[in-house]
Amino acid sequence: MLALIAALPVLLPAQPMMPDLFSHIGRYHVMNHGAESPFLQRYYSFRWQLIGNLGVDLLMVPLGALLPTELAARLAVASIPALTVAGIYAVSRAVWGRVQAPALVALPLALPHTFVFGFVNFHLGLVLVLLAFAWWVRAGTWRWRWAAALPLAGVVWVAHLAAWAVLLVLVAAWELARQRPQRGLAGLVASGLAVLPLAWPFLLTLSWRGTIADHHNIAGRHMTKPLLAKALWFTTLLRGEAQPFDMALAALVVIAAVLLLVRRGTGRSFGMVLAALLLFVAFLILPWQVMGSAYADTRLLPALFIALLAGLAVRERRLAGVVAAAGLMLFLVRDAELTNGWWRRGADAEADLGVLAAVPRGARIAVIARPSGNTTWTLTGLDHLASLAIVRREAFVNTQWDQPGAQLMRPIYNRDHGYNDSFSVALVQRPNQPGRRLGAILAGLPHDRFDFVWSFDAPLAKPWLREVARGPHGRLYRITG
Fold first, then answer.
1. pLDDT band of 211, cuts 50, 70, 90
2. Residues 6, 74: one domain?
3. What is the chain's percent helix, strand, coil content, to nearest 5?
4. Cα(89)–Cα(309) distance, rounded to whole angstroms?
């Protein structure tokens, strides 16, 4: 029942307001239907390759063949928070023999900020990590572990590289704890041998790294003030619809985890606490962006607190009931907040998409919008919403990523003319942030490469633009000259 409830924010609204998901859906459509459309073949290239970022893409191969793209993507993504709940339960049960009350405090982390942003491949990978780790803890002989771990490691890596790294940390910490009776070098060697069958995708990472190295900063990029940013990421753990509310909710989860950890009567799994500590160290060390992937450090926070809370147990029955009830309440409140907010904003987004009725198939649309989350707490998604025009009108839109090696699909139509990828969408926010001023965007826009301008900002007053439709947030203009 709780797993189904976790899926409601994705299933019920007219649109699940997850910014990056809109552009993912555009890619899924090109993947499954690009060969059928001369427009999509002209505007985008798609090439299969083995990369550590294919989780939902692979699910969409069969689902997208059976169902319309948007529906298939919605069902695939809705399964992620549902399976995360199942994964949290599975880990707690594997560690303690039954689900413990602190595990329920981790349930809001089935819907964290990074999932809300639309990092669906990573979160599907995290689901696989939780289920694989629960199996590892309960598995029997080392031979059986080795035999099953080899393919499991590959599956998790293909879903997402960062998820595979989390799996390595969890298993390494668990094995170090299990080998504690063998102190010194012998224990370390035994732990290393146990983890070895999970480590082979490192070879895949080296190969993939070479593919991306020509285009991205592999070493990563820190925020301007990294220590301050690290502290602020904790406050965004459950970023959603209302800043004070979300920060309070995140604070309650973090404080509950810390209080339960330091409480004298709490049962603690040394392996799980060690895993949480190692993930925290990794969070501190990692830059904000790695291999072209943003929020690389922040993605670890949900895994960190899930590991910590799944590794705790409350033995007193009355207190366990209170903790379980509190965790359940936090989860239901988080779920209701997102469902309500996305119901309202999703209806507006669908109304904005109504302007596509004025757009012919194969049209070329230049999108102008402010990046999600740079000026408002709520992630508007308006900078990626237009990607659904790929599905509904086989259109070219400059809202897709152009990250060679990191994504299977690339926009190619305007590669030599600018206004080709999602970076060309962004209106300037404030100093030291990406984007351009509206005047500069319009001045440089190649009129012969686009049919429409879709602006999610102030009205555009240019003699060569004629408004043809509008929605709650956006105005669609025909380029007339």
1. low
2. yes
3. 60, 10, 30
4. 11
- What single-letter DSSP state applies at residue 293? B
**β-pairing, 266-268 with 312-314?**
antiparallel
Please, where are the H alpha helices in 67-119?
69-96, 101-105, 113-117
Per-residue confidence (pLDDT) for residue 375, from 0 to 100: 75
Together in a domain, 187 and 218: yes
Contact 472, 361 (CB under 8 A): no
Q: Are residues 392 and 249 in the same domain?
A: no
Rounded to whole angstroms, the Cα distance separating 96 from 313 reads 8
**Closest Cα to residue 125, out of 162, 92, 89?**
162
Return the structure tokens found at 218. 């592999």
Q: pTM score, two decimals?
A: 0.94
Beta bridge pairs of residue 289: 221
Q: Which of 319, 340, 361 is the last residue of a domain?
A: 340
Question: Would 253 be classed as within a structural domain?
Answer: yes
Same domain, 333 and 360: no
Summarize pLDDT for 362-421 with one digit per residue, the tens.
999 999 999 987 778 999 999 999 999 999 999 999 999 998 878 899 999 999 888 888
Total domain count, the chain: 2
Please indicate whether residue 431 or residue 342 has the higher confidence score (pLDDT): 342
